[in-house]
Amino acid sequence: MTTDTLSAVRTPANDNQRTASALRFITCGSVDDGKSTLIGRLLVDSKSVLQDQLAGVQRSGETDLALLTDGLSAEREQGITIDVAYRYFATETRKFIIGDAPGHEQYTRNMVTAASSADAAVVLVDATKLDWQNPQLALLPQTRRHSLLAHLLRVHSLVFAINKLDAVADPALAFANIRNALATFAQAAGITVAATIPVSALKGWNVVISHPDWAGYQGPSLLELLEKLPTTPADAGQPLAFSVQWVEKFSASADTHQGRRIFWGRVGTGDVAVGTAVQILPSGQRATVAQVLDHVRQPVARGAGQSAGIVLDREVDVSRGDWIIAAPAPAVTHAADDDFDTPSERPAWPATREITATIAWMDNEPLLPGRVYWALHGRRWIKAKVRKVLNRLDINSLERQAAEQLEPNAIGRVEISLQEAIPAAAFVRSRELGSLILVDTASNSTAAAVLVE
């Protein structure tokens, strides 16, 4: 991944800009749909690029906007996007973090990585690649695949941007037919679409500045829409789940009235405050939160999505990868219940070794049941085995088909057995607890994104 970033032109920040939450969004879709050019246009027309940077992306005397994000030498030589390139810019009302995801099918894993932390996805559709005169036109496979993946990964807002309409004979007809095809696909897939906008990334129409009446569209420009999109809501209102990322030791302290270690990480669900009763997984030990610290070690309460340091009221064996979760609650019992069969407590997040999940297979080799992989859940590494492939999703018909294996870039449902029990929850309930990745034990390459059902 490239590490160079664009220097934004600093403007006086007003109160709205200082307090508005930054929007993380990605551009995705099929190859050569104009994703990198669109981001370049956003940066240039929002005046977030310096003159010397523009001078460095000239080709034959003209500015090649795609080069503003294609930073790898292989990307510039081949004219394609390979890895996700992140860029940052701000308007008077909001800050943005953009991820330029590659369109090639073989780099789908990079798109999944970018979408997993995005608040919005802008799916570009190249009008010149479609039979735009046909009201029953077929969409490109990558358009469908990236839209489905963004939906499965709980990307909060999805925007379709129909690009290159300036290159067709009848932009209004093309926009109407492609928009209807996208709406039909989205409805069948259960995808909620925030907006469908006609754009010309090359000319800048409807990207930053609106181009009224073009292609029969009267709505806001893409940037105006992005300024109003919400960020992904945190998984609040649920029991605490906190994955330990780092353990800070200060055991030399003579103060033993509480634990002498700080457990740093990010609150996945719920909130944590002094006095919260917790349980450690996988050990099952229990304790009470004695302190909650922010990044400058000041006492504070923390909620879902925020980083924190937790100090417990006593010394408990906790390591990187362990979970600090809400302590079990008393089980609801009835007079007719058999005391021998009724548990006395109800776990906040039950641990399990068997899960059924939707999986996006990204390895170059097909997924075959029975093979062992490393699985990463939160910060914990465990061994995992895919016991059975239940079915695969046909991205064209959206039907579930019987399958015994999954080919590269396929989406399907599987049954997975884990070496240890983990507090897994449905992904629709918790992004943190409901997601895993599978890693090949030999090559250490990411093999799959797993979303617990």
TrEMBL record:
Superkingdom field: Bacteria
Domain (Tr-type G): residue spans on this chain: 20-234
Cross-referenced PROSITE patterns: G_TR_1, G_TR_2
UniProt entry tagged with the keyword Transferase: yes
Uppermost EC category: transferase
SUPFAM superfamilies: EF-Tu/eEF-1alpha/eIF2-gamma C-terminal domain (SSF50465), P-loop containing nucleoside triphosphate hydrolases (SSF52540), Translation proteins (SSF50447)
Alphabetized Pfam families for the sequence: GTP-eEF1A_C, GTP_EFTU
One biological process term in Gene Ontology: sulfur compound metabolic process
CDD domains tied to this protein: CysN_NoDQ_III (cd04095)
Keywords: ATP-binding, GTP-binding, Nucleotide-binding, Nucleotidyltransferase, Transferase
Recorded GO MF terms: ATP binding; GTP binding; GTPase activity; sulfate adenylyltransferase (ATP) activity
Enzyme Commission designation: 2.7.7.4
Protein name per the record: sulfate adenylyltransferase
Organism per entry: Comamonas koreensis
